[in-house]
Amino acid sequence: MNSDYKSYLLSPLFLGVILLITLVGALFFGAYSMRFGEVWTAIFEASQDSTRFLILNIRLPRILLTALTGAGLAISGAAIQGLFRNPLADQTLIGVTSGAMLFAVLSIVLMGSLLTAFAEVFRQASVAIFAFAGGVATTYLVYFLSRKEGKTYVMTMLLAGIAITAFAGAITGVFIYLSDDQQLRDITFWSMGSFSGANWIQTGIVAPLILGGIFLLNRYAKALNAILLGEREATYLGIPVEQTKSRIILLTSLIAGVCIAMSGIIGFVGLIVPHLLRLLKGTDYHYLLKSSAIVGAIFLVLADTLARTIIAPAELPIGILTATVGAPFFLWLLIRSQQKSLAI
Amino acid sequence: MIEVKHIAVRKGGKTIISDISFTVKPGKITVVVGKNGAGKSTLLETLSGANPLSEGEIFWEHQPYSTLSPQQLATLRAVLSQQVTLGFPLTVNELVEMGTYVSPHHLSRLSIRKFVRQALKKVELPSFGNRDFTSLSGGEQKRVLLAKCMVQLNCCQQPGINQYLFLDEPTASLDIQQQHKLISWIKEWAKQRNLGIFAILHDLNLVAQFADEILIMNSGRMVARGAPEEVLTPEILLETMDIHALVQPHPVFTCPHITTLPESLELHSQ
User: Fold this and answer.
1) To the nearest whole percent, how much of chain A has pLDDT over 90?
2) Looking at chain B, which residue has its C-alpha nearest residue A82?
3) What per-residue confidence (pLDDT) applies to B270?
4) Alpha-helix residue ranges (DSSP H) falling in chain A
5) Residues A201-211: what's their mean pLDDT?
6) pLDDT < 50: residue spans in chain B
C-alpha cells in the first residue's frame, strides 16, 4: 500500500509548494529565456534595464493572471459538478460561457466599428466588460427559468442551460457572419483564449474577485458533500439547500465570468481538474475545492508557459494547449483507473 | 413530543394528504401502514420538513414547526431514507461523517472519527470505513445510512431535549435475518436514548411486534389509529387496506399474528 505516500503528495500543502515552484519557474521561460542570475538581478537589484521591465511588468502579471484564472475555472467547475451531481458539468452548462461569447462577439463586431477612434486598450476593456456582463446575465436567465415556487430545479437548469447555449450560439453565428476579416480573426482568437495582453491592471482587478470567490466557495464544502446524497437528504442533514444552490450559482458565475472576460474561452480546465483529483483522491469537497483551485492554477500556468515558448517568438492560443495536453492525459488516467471511480 | 394537528399537503392543486392528526411520543414507536399511494411517504417527508404544509400545523415540543430552520430540525431528528443514490462515489467514512455536519457543538477531528467508528461498530460494519459506498450491497448500504442517522442524533444530543428518528421502509431490500437485526438495533437504540420513532413499514407482522401505535392511511386520510391489538383486526384490515386476513394470538409474543389470505379463501377463513 502506498496510500500514505500518495496522500502526502496530494495534500493541499504539498500542491501549494508545487504551485509556488511552478510560478517562479515560469518566470524563466518565454520568447526570451533567462538564466537564474539574470532573473535575480532583475528582481532584487534595482537596475532599469529591459530585463527587469520584461519580468516585472510583462511576465509576472501574466503568470499571476494565468494562475488566478486556472484556480477560478477549476474550483467553479468542481462546485458546478457537485451541485448538478453530474460528471459532465462545468461552467459551460450554466450558460456563462455561451453568454460571454455572444456578448464578446457583439462587442467586437458592433463596438469595433464605433470605437475605432479610441485606443486599443478601450476596445479590449469593452470586450472584457461585455463578456463578463453577458456571462453573468445569461447564467441568471438560465437560473430564473429553472425556478418555481421558490425552488431551483437543477435538472431543468441543466436542460435550460443547453437550450440557451444553443440559442446564444446561433445569435453568435449571425454576428460572426456579419463580421469583417479582422473582426473574424479577433473573434477566433478570443474564443481560443489567451493571456498575451495581461498587465497589472487586469491582474489587480481579477485577484480580489477570484481570491474572494475561492474563499467563499470553500465554505460550501459541507453543503456540496451533502448534496451528493441528493437535495432531500441534504435538507435532512440540516443544509439550507435552496440558499446554498443560489449562492453557489452566483459565485461560480461571477468567478467564471471574470475568468472568461479576461482571457477568452479556455475549455477543459473546469472539467478535468476536479475529475483528476477525484480519481486520485476521492470526492470529499473539503479537499476537492481547495486542491482543484491549486491544481487548476498549476495546470494553466504550465499550459501558458508552453503556449509562450513552443512556437516563440509567436504564441499559441492557450485553449488549444489545454485540450491537446489535457485530453490525452485525462484519458490515460481514466483508462488506468478502469472508470471505477467515475461510475455512478 | 411531536403533535401533528389537522395537516394537509397539496402539490400542484392535488391534495395528497388531508386532515391528519396524531402524536409521536419520545420513547414510543409509531408506525404508519397503508396501500401504495396512500400518502405514507408524503406524510413522512412532511414530518421531516421537506414539504410545506397547506393546512394545519406541526408542533415540536410545543414549538410550531414552521419556525424551525433546517439546521434546528436536523439537530432534533434524523431520517433513514429508503434509498440514496450518490452523485459521485464516496467512502463509507465520508458518508457517515455527514451526520456531524449540523452539530451545534464544536467537534474535533478526533471526536468526529470516534462518533463514526462507534456508529459503524453498532451496525456491525466496523471495518467498512474506507469502502466505496456504491460498491456495497443494499443491506450494507442501509446499515451505513442508519449509522449516519446515529451519528447525527448522537452528536447533536443535548440534555433534556428529545430527539426523533424517521424511517422510510427501513426493511425494504433486506433479507429476513437483516430485517430483524435492523429492527432490534433501532428498538434498542430508541429505548436507550428515549427516541421517538416514526416509521413506514409494510410487513404487518413486523409492525405488530415493533409498534406501540399504528396509523393506517388510505387515499391521503388517516382511517385507523391505535395499539396493534386494536387496529390489526380482520374487519379494519379489510376495510382500510383490502386485505383478507386471519388474526390470531402470536405463538411467542403478546402481539397479534396476521395471516394474509387470497380473496377466494375469505369464506373458508371465517
Assistant:
1) 33
2) B87
3) 47
4) 3-9, 12-26, 36-44, 50-53, 60-84, 96-106, 112-114, 120-145, 154-178, 181-192, 200-218, 221-227, 231-236, 241-263, 269-281, 285-309, 318-336
5) 90
6) 269-270
The Cα–Cα gap between B243 and A287 comes to: 53
Q: B70 and A235: CB-CB below 8 Å?
A: yes
Option in B48, B91, B152 nearest A282 (CB): B91
Residue A1 has pLDDT above 50, yes or no: no
The beta-carbon neighbor of B152 closest among A237, A284, A344 is A237
CB contact under 8 A, B86 and A229: yes
Task: Collect all residues of chain B within an 8 Å Cβ-Cβ radius of residue A233.
Answer: 79, 81, 84
Which ipTM did the prediction report?
0.90
> Do A283 and B89 make contact, defined as CB atoms within 8 angstroms?
yes
Identify the CATH number of the domain defined by range B2-228. Answer: 3.40.50.300
**Count of other CB atoms within 10 angstroms of residue A183:** 18
User: Which is nearest to A305 in space by CA: A25, A44, A65?
Assistant: A25
DSSP one-letter string for A83-98: HHT-TT--GGGGTHHH
Q: Is A173 helix (H, G, I), strand (E, B) or coil?
A: helix
Q: How is residue A58 written as a grid cell?
A: 510583462
The amino acid that residue B30 corresponds to is T
Enter the pTM of the model: 0.88
CB-based contacts of B166: which residues, under 8 Å, 6+ apart? B44, B47, B48, B77, B78, B79, B80, B197, B198, B199
